[in-house]
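Appendix C reproduces, verbatim, an entry submitted by the partner laboratory led by Prof. M.T., so that reviewers can inspect both the input and the predicted structure.
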Amino acid sequence: MTAADYARTTKPSPATTAVIPAVKDVPGAGTEAKAKRDRGPKVSPAPSTGTGRRASLRLTHVEPWSVTRLAFAISVALMIVAVVAAMIFWVVLNFVGVWDQINDSLTTVLSDDSSSFDVKDYFGFGRFVGLTLVLSALNVVLMTILATIAAHLYNLAAQLMGGVEVTFSEEK
């Protein structure tokens, strides 16, 4: 609010109030009417008493090829996350000294000299990440196949039972 607006609100009110007659625009006359026409169609606001518009739809078919592509993309993303997490996990375990403690424990249990056994020879960084990569690649194949089969099964069930009913509504 500006100072001029505030000054207008604090003036003393007149003793009598005058009624100002309403002015009606004549359609098609004047620059204001032309400006209104140029603005485009008038959009009415959503009704305030109702809950908004709703649409109830049935999902009766899922395209198996799109499900296959999406499942493959998500599986590959999860594979990348798993490989990076495995790399970080192995490096942290190495930094903390877990592999050396496992070597010491196994040497004590086996009553063998420490030069003959090293857990990193069997469970080194390359093998650990390689195993994670192989298992993740297997997961990509299985998840893609299972998602495609699930899409086909959904389509069969939707033909028999009519699909899933979904209701969409506008926010207020």
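The mean pLDDT is 81. Additional entries are available on request from the coordinating office.
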